Every structure is written in C-alpha cells, then in structure tokens.
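The records we work with from here on pair a chain with its fold. These numbers are not coordinates but entries in a learned vocabulary of local backbone shapes. To see the layout at work, look at the sequence and tokens printed below.

. . .
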Amino acid sequence: MWDRVPSVVRRYFDLDPRRDGDGFVALFSNDATVVDERETRRGTDEIRAWRDGPVTKYRFATEVVAVEDAGPGRYLVTGSITGDFPGGAADLRWDFTVSGEPITRLVIAP
C-alpha cells in the first residue's frame, strides 16, 4: 500500500510519533497549511508551534489501514491512533496534498 504514496508521506508517519521537531517541520513547504482539530496553521512557524505544543503532550502509535490516491498530488490515509491522550483511541483520516516532495496541505479529521 505504501508504494502508492510519495516518500514525504511515508516519512510523515515515521516522524509523527517522534520528538524530532526539525525533521517533522522539514516535511512541509514554507507556506503549507495544516488543519487539525478544526484549527488551521499556516506556514512552518505555526506548524512548528502546533507540533511543539499539543502533539507533544501525549505518546501515541499510529496504525495505517488504507491509502488512497485521490488525484494529482493528493493522498488520503486512513488509520487509527492509540495512546495516553483523552479517550485513548481515535480513527482518523489524513488528507495530504503534495507538490513534489514537500507537503503543501494536510487536513487531519475523524
């Protein structure tokens, strides 16, 4: 299933549970947008603040269950996360837009 997505999307899931803020932010273009928990972050400074803020409060693991090619430069990843956050588990969908290697937009939603 991973052979259908660019390496930058695979690296996102490799770096997501780690505390490598620089490596994680490097996945995104300078003007990228991330939408998570209905909040929009624009640019790498806001993405870094999001990454260094709420995300680092918890330990979690992600299990990817499906990957869908949604058109040119767009990839939908479905999976679940489990960890020590409130509720302990969530089914999520990551909607990636990429331009070459950098991620230009990411929407994370149930």
The helical segments are 7-15, 21-25, 43-52. The radius of gyration is 13 Å.
